[in-house]
Amino acid sequence: MSAADLARLQFAATTGIHWLFVILTMGLVPLVAIMHTRAAFTRDPVKRAVGERRTRFWGQLYVINYAVGIVTGLVMEFQFGLSWSGLSKFAGNVFGAPLALETLIAFFAESTFLGMWIFGWGRLRKGVHVTLIWLVALTAYASAYWIMIANGFMQHPVGYEVRDGAAYLTDFGALLSNSSALVALVHVALAALTTGGVFVAGVSAHHFLGRTTETELFRGSLRLGLWTAAVASFFVVVVGEMQRPVIERTQPMKDAVLRNSGVAEAQARLVEEHGPGDYVPWQDTVRISMDVMTVIGNTVSTITLIAVVLLWRDWLLRRRLVLYVLVAMVPFPFVASVGGWVVREVGRQPWLVYGQLTVEDAFSGVSTTAVAVSCTVFVAVFVALAVTNWTLITRFARRGPDATQLGTTEPLPATESPVATGPLPVGLSAGPPSQAPTSPSATER
Residues 387, 189: contact at Cβ < 8 Å? Predict the structure, then answer.
């Protein structure tokens, strides 16, 4: 493999693994926010206690995924400067602003709100505390918007002019309203909600298969997860089809490959417009990825719709086969989302900025040895982080609410007076599961 191919492999592997964290983060946080809102404003103390336990259980899984995933995001933008300096030279004046805003939102605003939410249990008023988790959700999707704006420019460059071999922004509004970015953003958001809903439903189904005693907690989670997944998976297919006219208009070669018709005509057209070259991407890779995404999307939509119907009178809980199917379905949305990412990125090759900058021209010219070492190290670290993340998520998900440490309180030393000092609320306590609060008064002030 050439140095450029190794650099492409490195970016594809690290971005693909990072995306697995992102899509679960985006899919879980709105559901956690809904759970917290319902718990905080429920008057029935028994239901409020169950709602709080439910929020803390799913919130802890979300925090684990976010904490490990944020590490994988730190190296992404460095690769633009190290391996793809040509992209920065050509499109940095346009591309830089959305990336900078995404970094500010994801690594500052979102992290700050999340930290305040984690350590706000028992300290903040319920309205403020609930607002924080909704701000986390809002900033997560705002971060996704800016990254899709940057990617949308690479897919369909708009609002710029080229001077002295570099692109300069001339129409910020056109950049923000790029159809290649906005339609894809809606598709990504719905895919994330599908992923989060299937994850919540699958973990809840696992606990019912294990004869859990937390019936009310996981019944509510199962309902929320299935309704979210059923609605989102239906519309994710609809919005996916809405992208086809955009692709046809902006990337005729990708459209021809997906239709498996007119590839030669598209090649001739691009040669006429941009000069000699091979403008055909890896056709089998693009088509297979599209087929995988489509089949999984329709399968998830059908199964979750059937499961929603079976929720009536708890029919679903008496049909263990369906519960096993829900558990087995948890990885499906992740596979589908990676397939969609492959279609979007591989399908526009050999362009990095479509019609303006090829991959070869954007490569920094780093030696093959240096890129090989970098690729090996980064991929190994990212795989280790992914394994660590899912090991932790699986462990805490299987242990159930009793193992939840989010929002617990540290025990008082025997020599201290509870009247004088009171419990010390923390976000992620190191105390044993038995110290988790069992009543609303332990977590609400």
Answer: no
Q: Is the pLDDT of residue 303 over 90?
A: yes
- Contact present, 117 and 136 (Cβ < 8 Å): yes
Contact in structure between 303 and 329 (CB atoms under 8 Å): yes
SS3 per residue for 311-348: CHHHCHHHCHHHHHHHHHCCCHHHHHHHHHHHHHHHCC
350 preceded by cis ω (within 30°)? yes
- Which of 403, 328, 322, 58 is closest to 200 using CA atoms? 58
Between 127 and 77, name the one with better pLDDT. 127
Burial class (CB in 10 A: 0-12, 13-18, 19+), 368: middle
pLDDT tens, residue by residue, 422-437: 333 334 433 333 333 3
Is residue 54 within 8 Å of residue 220, measured between CB atoms? yes
Instruction: Tell me whether strands 160-163 and 166-169 are parallel, antiparallel or unpaired.
Output: antiparallel
Domain boundaries, the chain: 3-251+282-406
DSSP state of 406: B
- Whole-model pTM: value is 0.89
Rg (CA), the chain: 24
Amino acid at 351: W
The runs of H, that is alpha helices, within 156-262 are: 172-176, 179-209, 215-250, 252-259
pLDDT in tens, 321-334: 999 999 999 999 99
Question: Would you say 252 and 266 are in contact if contact means Cβ atoms under 8 Å apart?
Answer: yes
**Which residue from 203, 360, 347 is spatially nearest to 289, judged by alpha carbons?**
347
Contact by Cβ (8 Å): 159, 171: yes
Rounded to whole angstroms, the Cα distance separating 65 from 17 reads 12
Instruction: Sort 438 into a burial class: Cβ within 10 Å, 0-12 / 13-18 / 19+.
Output: exposed
Distances (CA, A) of 261 to 61, 66, 252, 266, 283: 45, 42, 11, 10, 11
Dihedral, 309, 313, 318, 321 alpha carbons, nearest 10: 0
Alpha-carbon torsion, ordered 47, 435, 57, 330, to 10 deg: -130
| 410 bridge partner residues | 424
Q: What are phi and psi of 42, to 5 degrees?
A: -90, 130
